[in-house]
Each structure stands twice: as C-alpha cells, then as structure tokens.
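Q&A log
Question type: sequence-to-structure
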Amino acid sequence: MENVLVQEYRADMVECAHNGHICIVNEEGAIQAYTGDPGFVAFTRSSAKPLQAIPAIRDGMAEFYGLSDEEIAIMVASHRGEPRHVEVLEQFARRVKLHEDLMVCAPSWPLDDRSKEVLLRTGGERSRWYHNCSGKHYGMLAYCQMAGLPLNGYDQPDHPLQQEIIRTIADLTGLAQGDIRIGTDGCGLPVFAMPLQALATAYMKLACPDRIKDEATREAVLTITSAMNTSPFMVAGSGKVDTVLLEDSNIVAKGGFKGVYCFGLKKERLGVAFKILDGSEEEWGWIAQSILEQIGYANKATISRLAQAFPTGIMNDSGRTVGRAETVFKLAHGPSPN
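Response status: OK
Response body:
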C-alpha cells in the first residue's frame, strides 16, 4: 500500500514519489501520531548506534580511558571522514592502544567529497579510520579490552558484548529479545529489525532517560546523549541532518542507511522513527522539518536551520533551479487503526 511522504517535481510534473511510514510515540511508548504503518518492521541500521554504545559507557569505559565528549560522540557516529573526525579517532586510539586492523569494517575512502579529493591528490590510501562506522567498531574493541572479553569475534552475534547489546536494545524498545530479528549490517556488525513503534520508543527513552528503570543505564544514556549534543559535528559531519538537529540541545537524533531516521524530543517527551521505503536519505531533512512543523515544535530556529540546510529546490549541475520537492504527508493523531 502506497503512503507518499515526499514528491519531487520537474517541469511541474511528478518525477519521483517517496513512500514510507512515520511513527511518533509519547512517554508511555503509545502511538501519538503516525502516517502509514507505525508497526512497519525496519532494520535500524546506524540509528541503533547510540543504543549499541550503552553497555560500554554503562560499565565505565569513559572513565577508564578518560574519554572526551568528542570521543564518546564518535563512537555513535556515521562520520564522513573529515579531518577532525580522523583526528579524534587517532586520539582515541592513542588512549586505547589497539591497532586499527582489528576492526572488521573495510578500509574505505572518506564519504566527504572534499576530504576524499584531498586524500587522493596527496597520495593517500583507503583506511579503516575513514569508514563511517569506525568509531563504533573501535569503541567496541576498546570495551572488550577493558572488560577482558575476546577481541576476535567481537562482531559475531554470540559474542558476550553483542549479547549484552541485544539485551539492552530489547529493554529500551520494550520488545522481547526473541522478537528482534538480527541480520548483518554493511560494516559487518549485527543489525536489528523491529517495528517503528519500538524504535521510536527507544528514542523517546534516549531523550527522556527518567523512563529507564535501571539507574546505570540512565546514567549511560545521559553521558551519550550529552556528548552527541555537545559535539554534533562528530556524529555526522558538515551539513548533515544529524548535525543540524543535534545542535538543538532538546533533540537526540541519529539516522541509518537505507532511509531510516529517528529522533527524540526531551521537553515534549516524544520519540520519532520513520522509514523511506526506497532507502533514500535525501528526504530526511524535509521530512524532519515537516514533522516538527506539524507537531508545533516551539524552537523555530531549528526548523529554520533545517530549511536553510535542505532547501526544497532541485538544482541541475550548474546550480540552476529545475524542480522542487514537497512533503505531502499529514500526520494522523491517536492510536493507529491497524
């Protein structure tokens, strides 16, 4: 069943339509607003990174290694390999003293075009540090070293760390552990499939950790989300949706590959998760802006920053406006009839 979120026009004709689903939950985890199917099951991809970091921070890794906010933020990042990202990763490595080759993520070029161009012009090579998930991988290895867990096999679902991560995710989503389907992410680590309502519930708890029963988990969430808001550039990079939203201290936000995006609102005590079915990411900023407008979000400066960073005009190669994008969904309020 189609549920169009965004339409793209060229010469006043619809050229593309992006279908998807949105779920917004309140502080009880109940559906407050939605469009499409709020129970749609999606893989979390990188939106799970703040959740995956909880066991390490909960067990004292930040204090053990003396980590800065930037280093904690890079652990949950989908960074673009910009120079500051690499500097912080190398600083992290000097504290931990584990070789980058222990990471199972592949040597990569930076996702940031300018950084990649500079690297190519100066004779640089692919590196695991440039992989957008390297902070997550290195953080897991650092935790395993601290906790005396095996470094080999840290990426396998039966590894003690991965078992603790899945238990933590089950707790924050309100799902039974057996109801979370596990696959393999692009970077080689386990990835989790769950209903959007469950993912939105986890983000509500990231924004409102008082809804978390376990005190150590609450404190870990506060440490992680504070680092994300203090160092938003580390979480993504220049001009990315995560960075723009995290500049607002009221928002905890993180996207994932293949069109999944999540954010939590602290004062409003809401969690939001949406999935673009064709896997596109270009529409994230437009959809997030429309959601905030439709719920009457008070911080208009954040909405203005989104509008400025992600204009709806479609440009050709020479910078001429040749089309436009429009968000066309309307949120329904109350529980889903499905």
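Response note: Residues 4-333 form a domain with the Beta-lactamase fold (CATH 3.40.710).
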